[in-house]
Amino acid sequence: MSRSGVASVVRSPRFGDDWWRRGVVYQVYPRSFADADGDGVGDLQGVIDHLDHLGPDGLGIDAIWLSPIYPSPGRDVGYDVSDHRAVDPVFGSEGDFDRLVEAAHERGIRIVLDLVMNHTSDRHRWFTASRQARTGPYADWYVWRDPRGSGPDGTPLPPNNWVSWFGGSAWRYEPARGQFFLHTFLEEQPDLNWRAPGVEAAQFEMVQGWLDRGVDGFRLDVFNIFLKHPDTPDNPTRDGASAWDRQLHRYDIDHPDQPALIRRFRDLVDRAPGRMSVGELFVGTTEGAAALTTDRHLVFDWELISQDWRADAFRGAIQRRERAFGNDRWPTIVLSNHDQPRHASRLAATIAATGDERDAIARAAALVELTMRGTPFLYYGEELGMSDVAIPPEESIDPPAARISEDFGWWDRSQARTPMPWSHGRGAGFTTGRPWLRLGPDAPTRNVAAQLGDPDSVLACYRRVLAARGAQPSLQDGELALVTIDDPTVLAYRRRGSGPEILVAVAFDRREAEIRVPAPTDGGRWRSLVGTHRDPPAAIVGHEPWVLRPFEGVVLVADR
Ligand code: NOJ
């Protein structure tokens, strides 16, 4: 319960219990969104202060996903949690959290928390107890195994060949127990043993605590690795560029017991209607994401996040997604997040675009992201076309980046986690203090205030397209069918759902494209609804040829 003792519920949302399918989720990285107390680090009060940017008079999103807000020693910047039930004081108080839930709910915005349940911090009280001895209430709460033997010098050998995603063996020896513990990520992030009954009970109790405080959904960090093979056999090996890639992850990922665990988790969150969850698929395929998707439990699919800015690349990705998910399962749409390069930088780089072209691509990508079939997850700042920021190594805040080596082909995620620029001036309206991570060099011009005043900005485009999406049922629930256009540099698809039919056409090239589109399925003509440009080329478009400008995207609606 919140301090008032009554869990807040979302008021006048634009969608009902199916919001997770019709709506749009916005990821806030709390350290970098807005700093209200001037310590240079973003906080919950900062999110409250900027809800108007997100609410019905702003972008008009339906839910905020907050990256981890729990106390953390910061070895993996919040993904090493030392107490899942509390708010890290760096973000504010418990009361600030309850006020955020309440203030968001008042604007019809739901709150989705990031649950890191595969592992804890090594400072979590469960682990400090567990590592002390082979007996005691927490003894089997982590994945402990005996050494496989000892090396010539007597050093204990790891129990199997599993490797850590962040490089090196996935096992670390603990002399106090004479055993190794498993860490799929850093050694400061020991994996929990979900097969110990106490672990599931404790996790579910923690989840219930957040539900009682009015939380509307959860993002489950690396959810497909909660359960490992109980016998921890060696993974088969193969050729590959890194230690991780040189194994087939048969026994440490996607255990067949996982879907039943998610069902038990859903039974818990389904006690109240309208609560969603989304699982972060750890290194999986689109088919894997589709297989683990169930009603109200979405799964991130990474097909789109790795595509170049080419119509055929996006067409292929959409085809693979549609084939894998079919019409019964609901996909997610993700172009950026806190682990990946920002797409405004990444996509432009794939065709060496800079300056205005780069922003034109950010607008066109937004139109695709917001009109495809699936629930879009936007990453803070993408609505400004924010880029990755070059961070000198001594300023990096991403400890795994220090481990980058020939065998660990990672990147410094700090570059995609820089503070949100709200206005010009020192601190860019993000902070009155010294930002915890440097601002992008373009913050004086690329910021919310500046873009609000410019109808051709990336932000103006996001607001237009989000409004159109909110008003057109077929964009929210429709099936998707790719449409073949004479010009292969144009991506086009139809959406047919509970409202008028929609046709989307996007020019991926830096030259004009003359195209013809087929008529609406049930006859009539197309009316231009919204586009990347303020002045879409024609109000009414029939079968006649028409021209898309470079990187222009248009949404047409059937008009009888
Ligand atoms: C996935 C998270 O998105 C990432 O930021 C984190 O490093 C790993 N899981 C480990 O929690």
How many DSSP helices?
A: 15
Q: Which class of secondary structure composition applies to the elements? A: alpha/beta
- CATH superfamily name of the largest domain? Glycosidases
Whole-number radius of gyration? Answer: 24 Å
Strand content: 5-15%
Terminus-to-terminus distance: 51 Å
Q: What's the story with the biggest beta sheet?
A: 8 strands, parallel
Written description of the protein model:
With 560 residues, the chain is an alpha/beta fold. It folds into two domains: 19-121 and 194-466, Glycosidases (TIM Barrel); 478-559, Sandwich (Immunoglobulin-like). Helices cover 24% and strands 15% of the residues. The chain contains 15 helices and 19 strands. The protein has helices at 19-22, 30-33, 44-49, 51-54, 94-106, 125-130, 197-212, 258-269, 286-292, 311-325, 343-350, 355-371, 448-452, 458-471, 473-477, and strands at residues 25-28, 63-66, 110-115, 144-145, 171-174, 179-182, 217-220, 276-279, 297-299, 332-334, 375-379, 479-482, 490-496, 502-507, 513-515, 525-531, 540-541, 546-548, 553-559. The strands form four sheets. Strands 9-8-7-3-2-1-11-10 form an eight-stranded parallel beta sheet. A six-stranded antiparallel beta sheet has the order 12-13-14-19-16-17. Strands 4-6-5 form a three-stranded antiparallel beta sheet, with no helix packed on it. It starts with 18 loop residues before the first helix and ends with a strand. Bound molecules: 1-deoxynojirimycin.
Pick out its properties:
TIM Barrel; alpha/beta; globular; binds 1-deoxynojirimycin; 560 residues; Immunoglobulin-like; 19 strands; 2 domains; 8-stranded parallel β-sheet
